[in-house]
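Hello again, I could really use a second opinion on something today. For a while now I've been wondering how a particular protein folds. Please have a think about how the structure follows from the sequence. Here's the protein in full, and shout if anything looks odd to you:

***
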Amino acid sequence: MGSSLSNKPRGGCCYHSVFTDEETEAQRSSCLPSRIQALEHVRRSLPELAQHKADMQRWEEQSQGAVYTVEYACSAVKNLVDSSIYFRSVEGLLKQAISIRDHMNAAAQGHSPEEPPPPSSA
């Protein structure tokens, strides 16, 4: 009565137990339609699954390209921000150069550097 060999479900439609060869063959035959149905389902699903896989790979490549583009753009903006001190320095030097040029032009025309040159009457 307390035998460990009982007819317990093993999975699917098949049972695992001690059967005669005829019983085992009959049991395998009864599982055959469900196995064939599962194989047919897989066969019908494969083209769609392959297309989904190809789509996902293409989207992954596109998204990786977009991520690279965004990272590159962010790096460029950071470099510009980091360069702003140099731009301000160049701006200051240009203002000094313009001021020196104006003073030199005024001195060449016989005016004192503090006096602005007379307006040109062109």
Notes: The longest strand covers residues 8-11. The chain has one domain: 16-108. Residues 1-12 have pLDDT under 50 and may be disordered. The chain is about 70% helix and 5% strand.
